[in-house]
Structures are given as C-alpha cells and as structure tokens.
Amino acid sequence: MRVRTRSAPRLAVAVVAAAALLSGCGIGGGPGTKDASVLVTGNFGTQLYGSAVETRVPGAETVMSLLQRHFKVTTRYGGGFAESIGGHSGGANHRDWFYYVNGIEAPSGAATTDVHAGDHIWWDLHDWTATNSVPAVVGSYPEPFTNGGGGRKFPTLLDCAPNLQTACDDIGTALHKFGVKAPDQVLGTGSGSDSLAVVVGTWSQVKGVVAAELIAAGPRQSGVYAQFAGSSVLELENPKGQVVRTLRGSVGLIAATGDASLGQPTWFVTGTDVAGVMAAVKSFTAAKLAHHFAVAVDGSTVIPVPLPPGS
To answer: pLDDT tens digits for 104-116?
Structure first.
C-alpha cells in the first residue's frame, strides 16, 4: 500500500504564509456578505469558548477581522496567526490555534482569508503532537456541502459500495434536506478534484480509495484519530496518537480527510461490516456531528475522536 507523505508540515507553511502576508486585514470596501458565523472551541471541540453569528458582514472582511470583532485576540507573525482568543493561549506544550472554514482546513493565514456568504468558521485550540494538519472535520456539517469554500460551491458525489444502496440512499436523503444534490455512482468510478465525495461502504470495501490510505496511515497523514485493525476492530486514539480504546464488532466511523493533491476533501461513512455502516448512517446528522472532528459509532453511541488522554 502506497502512502503519500507531505514535504513540509502544514503548520510551518501556514505560519510562513501568514508572516509574509502581513497586511491582509480587509482593506477597501465591498458588497459585504451574509450569515457568517464563528465558533471558538478547545481540545478538538470538547470545550466551547464562544460563538457569534453575523447576518451582515462588511465588505472585504477577513477571518481574522471577523474574529477580532467578537473576541479579545492577540496575534503573532504579523497578525496572521492567533496566539490567544478570549484569554485562551496556544504556543506551549504542542498546543496552538487552528481554524477551519466550512469544515476544511485553511491553507493560509487568517488575515488573508476572506469571509464569504454563509461561511462557518471554526477555531479550535488543541494538541498537535500527533499531527499539525487535520485536513477536514465533520463537525461543521452540512458544510462543506452547502457552501463549499472560497465563496464557491462544489458538486457532491456519493461513491457507493456494492450491496449498500440503502445506506447510500439514506445519505443522499440527508444531504437533500439541506438542498444538496448528491448523485450516486459505483465505488471506484472516481470523481473530479473539484467535487466533494462521500464514500459509503464497509472498510474492507473502501480501503482501496486513495483518501482511505491516508486514514490507514494514521493521524499524521489523515488527521483522523481512528484506524481499522483488520476487518472487525476500530482503534481510537488520543491527541498524541496513542491507541486508548478498541471497539470490536459492528462499529462505524464518520470522518473526512484529504490532501492538496487530491482536491476537495473526501468523507467516509464506513464501518467494520454492513451493520456498522448502517449505524454510522443513522448518526449522519448535524446534531450528532456538531463540534466533532470525527466520530466512531458503537450501536447508538456516538464517540468523538480523538479521545481525551487516559480514556
């Protein structure tokens, strides 16, 4: 199995970009945008620090300027990188602030990233010992399917494994409730780099998908703190990448990951077997995914991952 590796840590790239683009603070007027929100949490979404919603955002608003109008913020690297938000500081013990726009990891500093209509911006202060890159999270659902990224919506495709059409139809129905059209296709057909893919199938069926190889390689590659061990075991990890809980039997996983070379993120609704996939399908709701980076599903129990140390 070939595993992709990154040539440089994304955190370092983001910091350099932020330092190089010091003045991107939204200079100049513009038409403005509507209904942008900002969420601030800690420890992978488990601690809520605050949130705000704006029905009218000024023209040329940036992620940083929006944050600063609602929270007390200190910055570094020329203003593009948050050091503290609301008195909660990073920069020590492998803890820093990271942000996601519509559930997708931001590729550049907050002072140079524009806010668009409907954007859901999520800041989280967390331990990056295992990885400094989490390419995508599920906790902003129904984003990125409704608003995409950079002010542009992306088509959504369902990649359906054989004998799981009911599961695929249920995911399509869930997306349709948010106005998202998601035609399905046979797993392995492939999709364009500008499409969002939702892969539905057991792990043994989907593990050959390129993005699934990232999950199999561990959180350093995928940002997903859960891995399948064989066909009937799901191992859950803490922020340091240590396995702290093992689930056996019919268990599911809802996670998103990706890589710049693959285009838009790929979501997985998967499990150890068909029953595990169906358990994950039943948890594919905004309420159950809210504020979680990824979730394991054991019966009717939703387990956010990563797990806290010592779990």
So the answer is: 999 889 999 999 9
DSSP annotation of 107: S
- Asked if 138 and 16 touch (Cβ cutoff 8 Å), the reply is no
pLDDT band at 126, cuts 50/70/90?
very high
Give the pLDDT confidence of 51-73 residue by residue, as tens digits: 999 888 777 789 999 999 999 99
CA dihedral (150, 42, 9, 216) positive or negative: negative
Output the CA torsion sign for 23, 73, 122, 247. Answer: positive
Instruction: Tokens 């399905």: give the residue.
Output: 184
Euclidean distance between CA atoms 79 and 105, whole angstroms: 19
Given a contact cutoff of 8 angstroms between Cβ atoms, the answer to whether 103 and 140 are in contact is yes
pLDDT tens for 215-271 read 999 999 999 999 999 879 999 999 999 999 999 999 999 999 998 888 899 999 999
Q: Please tell me the distance from the alpha carbon of residue 309 to that of residue 293, in angstroms, as a whole number.
A: 16
d(CA 6, CA 197): 22
Q: What pLDDT is stored for residue 310 in this prediction?
A: 66
State what percent of residues in the chain have pLDDT above 70. 87
> Residues 6 or more apart from 246 whose CB is under 8 A from it?
229, 233, 234, 235, 236
Bridge partners (DSSP) listed for residue 253: 270, 296
Alpha helix (H) residue ranges in the chain: 10-20, 63-68, 165-176, 203-206, 210-216, 219-222, 274-282, 286-289
Cβ-based burial of 152 (10 A; exposed 0-12, middle 13-18, buried ≥19) = exposed
End-to-end CA distance of the chain: 31
